[in-house]
Protein backbone atom coordinates (compact mmCIF):
# COMPACT_ATOMS: atom_id res chain seq x y z
CA UNK A 1 0.00 0.00 0.00
CA UNK A 2 1.43 3.36 -1.05
CA UNK A 3 1.27 6.14 1.55
CA UNK A 4 0.25 8.95 -0.80
CA UNK A 5 -0.29 11.35 2.09
CA UNK A 6 3.37 10.95 3.08
CA UNK A 7 4.56 11.80 -0.42
CA UNK A 8 2.16 14.74 -0.76
CA UNK A 9 3.42 16.14 2.57
CA UNK A 10 7.01 15.61 1.43
CA UNK A 11 6.60 17.58 -1.78
CA UNK A 12 4.69 20.25 0.13
CA UNK A 13 7.80 20.68 2.31
CA UNK A 14 10.29 20.53 -0.58
CA UNK A 15 8.55 22.61 -3.23
CA UNK A 16 7.05 26.07 -3.61
CA UNK A 17 3.28 26.37 -3.43
CA UNK A 18 3.08 26.72 -7.22
CA UNK A 19 5.17 23.59 -7.85
CA UNK A 20 3.28 21.67 -5.14
CA UNK A 21 -0.07 22.49 -6.79
CA UNK A 22 1.37 21.49 -10.15
CA UNK A 23 2.56 18.14 -8.79
CA UNK A 24 -0.83 17.36 -7.24
CA UNK A 25 -2.53 18.31 -10.52
CA UNK A 26 -0.15 16.12 -12.54
CA UNK A 27 -0.94 13.26 -10.18
CA UNK A 28 -4.68 13.73 -10.75
CA UNK A 29 -4.26 13.99 -14.53
CA UNK A 30 -2.07 10.87 -14.52
CA UNK A 31 -4.77 8.90 -12.70
CA UNK A 32 -7.39 10.08 -15.22
CA UNK A 33 -5.17 9.09 -18.15
CA UNK A 34 -4.49 5.72 -16.51
CA UNK A 35 -8.20 5.06 -16.42
CA UNK A 36 -8.48 5.89 -20.12
CA UNK A 37 -5.44 3.92 -21.28
CA UNK A 38 -5.24 0.96 -18.91
CA UNK A 39 -2.34 2.19 -16.83
CA UNK A 40 -1.67 1.40 -13.19
CA UNK A 41 -3.45 4.20 -11.31
CA UNK A 42 -1.33 3.92 -8.15
CA UNK A 43 1.94 4.05 -10.07
CA UNK A 44 0.69 6.96 -12.16
CA UNK A 45 -0.43 8.83 -9.04
CA UNK A 46 2.91 8.26 -7.32
CA UNK A 47 5.02 9.23 -10.33
CA UNK A 48 2.83 12.29 -10.83
CA UNK A 49 3.26 13.43 -7.25
CA UNK A 50 7.03 12.92 -7.31
CA UNK A 51 7.94 13.88 -10.89
CA UNK A 52 9.26 17.36 -9.93
CA UNK A 53 10.59 16.52 -6.45
CA UNK A 54 14.04 17.99 -7.23
CA UNK A 55 12.88 20.75 -9.61
CA UNK A 56 13.77 23.44 -7.05
CA UNK A 57 16.82 21.68 -5.60
CA UNK A 58 20.13 23.53 -6.12
CA UNK A 59 21.98 22.18 -9.16
CA UNK A 60 25.09 21.02 -7.24
CA UNK A 61 22.86 18.83 -5.07
CA UNK A 62 21.11 17.48 -8.17
CA UNK A 63 24.47 16.69 -9.77
CA UNK A 64 25.56 14.83 -6.62
CA UNK A 65 22.36 12.75 -6.59
CA UNK A 66 22.81 11.80 -10.23
CA UNK A 67 26.43 10.82 -9.69
CA UNK A 68 25.60 8.84 -6.55
CA UNK A 69 22.97 6.99 -8.58
CA UNK A 70 25.67 5.90 -11.03
CA UNK A 71 24.71 8.21 -13.87
CA UNK A 72 26.44 11.07 -15.59
CA UNK A 73 25.19 14.22 -17.24
CA UNK A 74 25.74 14.73 -20.94
CA UNK A 75 27.17 17.96 -22.35
CA UNK A 76 23.67 18.90 -23.43
CA UNK A 77 22.22 18.31 -19.97
CA UNK A 78 24.97 20.35 -18.34
CA UNK A 79 24.01 23.21 -20.67
CA UNK A 80 20.25 22.86 -20.30
CA UNK A 81 19.35 22.74 -16.63
CA UNK A 82 15.63 22.43 -17.42
CA UNK A 83 16.03 18.69 -18.03
CA UNK A 84 18.33 17.79 -15.14
CA UNK A 85 15.55 17.46 -12.56
CA UNK A 86 14.13 14.39 -14.28
CA UNK A 87 17.38 12.45 -13.68
CA UNK A 88 17.95 13.85 -10.20
CA UNK A 89 14.30 13.26 -9.30
CA UNK A 90 14.50 9.59 -10.19
CA UNK A 91 17.78 9.35 -8.29
CA UNK A 92 16.27 11.06 -5.23
CA UNK A 93 13.29 8.72 -5.26
CA UNK A 94 15.54 5.66 -5.50
CA UNK A 95 18.27 6.73 -3.08
CA UNK A 96 16.45 8.81 -0.48
CA UNK A 97 12.92 7.43 -0.61
CA UNK A 98 13.81 3.81 -1.30
CA UNK A 99 11.43 3.55 -4.24
CA UNK A 100 12.50 0.52 -6.25
CA UNK A 101 9.69 0.30 -8.78
CA UNK A 102 11.51 0.58 -12.10
CA UNK A 103 8.36 1.75 -13.92
CA UNK A 104 7.74 4.63 -11.51
CA UNK A 105 11.40 5.66 -11.55
CA UNK A 106 11.49 5.56 -15.35
CA UNK A 107 8.31 7.64 -15.64
CA UNK A 108 9.96 10.29 -13.45
CA UNK A 109 13.27 9.93 -15.31
CA UNK A 110 11.76 10.67 -18.75
CA UNK A 111 8.86 13.02 -17.96
CA UNK A 112 10.57 16.02 -19.57
CA UNK A 113 12.43 14.64 -22.57
CA UNK A 114 10.55 11.46 -23.35
CA UNK A 115 12.53 8.62 -24.90
CA UNK A 116 12.36 5.96 -27.58
CA UNK A 117 9.74 3.23 -27.03
CA UNK A 118 8.09 4.77 -23.99
CA UNK A 119 5.89 2.63 -21.78
CA UNK A 120 2.24 3.51 -21.20
CA UNK A 121 3.11 4.83 -17.73
CA UNK A 122 5.90 7.02 -19.09
CA UNK A 123 3.56 8.45 -21.74
CA UNK A 124 0.88 9.06 -19.13
CA UNK A 125 3.17 11.01 -16.81
CA UNK A 126 4.76 12.93 -19.70
CA UNK A 127 1.32 13.93 -20.98
CA UNK A 128 -0.15 14.61 -17.54
CA UNK A 129 2.70 17.05 -16.91
CA UNK A 130 1.61 19.03 -19.97
CA UNK A 131 -2.16 19.01 -19.39
CA UNK A 132 -2.38 19.48 -15.62
CA UNK A 133 -5.17 21.77 -14.48
CA UNK A 134 -3.06 24.88 -13.83
CA UNK A 135 -1.35 24.84 -17.24
CA UNK A 136 -2.31 27.75 -19.50
CA UNK A 137 0.23 27.79 -22.34
CA UNK A 138 -0.92 28.23 -25.95
CA UNK A 139 -2.38 24.97 -27.29
CA UNK A 140 -3.01 23.42 -23.86
CA UNK A 141 -6.67 22.89 -24.74
CA UNK A 142 -5.66 21.08 -27.92
CA UNK A 143 -3.32 18.92 -25.83
CA UNK A 144 -6.09 18.13 -23.33
CA UNK A 145 -8.47 17.16 -26.10
CA UNK A 146 -5.89 14.94 -27.79
CA UNK A 147 -4.96 13.33 -24.46
CA UNK A 148 -8.57 12.32 -23.97
CA UNK A 149 -8.75 10.76 -27.44
CA UNK A 150 -5.40 9.13 -28.26
CA UNK A 151 -2.30 9.03 -26.07
CA UNK A 152 0.16 8.62 -28.94
CA UNK A 153 -1.37 11.53 -30.87
CA UNK A 154 -1.13 13.66 -27.73
CA UNK A 155 2.51 12.64 -27.33
CA UNK A 156 3.29 13.43 -30.95
CA UNK A 157 1.64 16.83 -30.71
CA UNK A 158 3.46 17.61 -27.46
CA UNK A 159 6.84 16.63 -28.81
CA UNK A 160 6.34 18.65 -32.01
CA UNK A 161 5.28 21.60 -29.85
CA UNK A 162 8.37 21.22 -27.66
CA UNK A 163 10.77 20.79 -30.58
CA UNK A 164 9.32 23.80 -32.43
CA UNK A 165 9.54 25.89 -29.27
CA UNK A 166 13.18 24.94 -28.64
CA UNK A 167 14.17 25.47 -32.28
CA UNK A 168 12.49 28.90 -32.34
CA UNK A 169 14.67 29.93 -29.37
CA UNK A 170 17.81 28.32 -30.87
CA UNK A 171 18.12 25.92 -27.93
CA UNK A 172 19.60 22.45 -27.85
CA UNK A 173 17.36 19.46 -28.54
CA UNK A 174 17.80 16.54 -26.18
CA UNK A 175 18.47 13.38 -28.20
CA UNK A 176 15.89 11.49 -26.13
CA UNK A 177 13.23 13.92 -27.35
CA UNK A 178 14.24 13.43 -30.96
CA UNK A 179 14.27 9.66 -30.44
CA UNK A 180 10.83 9.82 -28.84
CA UNK A 181 9.47 11.75 -31.81
CA UNK A 182 11.00 9.32 -34.29
CA UNK A 183 9.81 6.31 -32.31
CA UNK A 184 6.20 7.48 -32.37
CA UNK A 185 6.34 8.16 -36.11
CA UNK A 186 7.99 4.80 -36.76
CA UNK A 187 5.24 3.02 -34.83
CA UNK A 188 2.66 4.55 -37.20
CA UNK A 189 4.49 3.03 -40.18
CA UNK A 190 4.85 -0.48 -38.75
Throw out a few tags for this protein:
69% helix; mainly alpha; 0% strand; 190 residues; globular; 11 helices; single chain
Describe this structure in words.
The protein has 190 residues and is an all-alpha fold. Helix content is 69%, strand content 0%. It has helices at residues 4-14, 17-37, 41-50, 59-68, 75-78, 84-95, 102-109, 120-131, 140-149, 151-168, 175-189. Helix 3 (41-50) crosses helix 8. The protein is globular, with a radius of gyration of 16 Å.
Question: Number of DSSP helices?
Answer: 11
Helix content: 55-70%
Describe the global form.
globular
Question: How would you classify the quaternary structure?
Answer: single chain
Through-space gap between termini: 39 Å
Q: Give me the secondary-structure category.
A: mainly alpha
Low-confidence stretches: none
The average pLDDT is 96
Order of helices and strands: HHHHHHHHHHH
Amino acid sequence: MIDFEYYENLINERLSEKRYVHSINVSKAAVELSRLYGGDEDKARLAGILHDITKETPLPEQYALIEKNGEALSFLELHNSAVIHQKSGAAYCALRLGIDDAEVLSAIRYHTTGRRDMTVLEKIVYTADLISAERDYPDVEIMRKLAAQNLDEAMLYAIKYTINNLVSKTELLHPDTVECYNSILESKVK
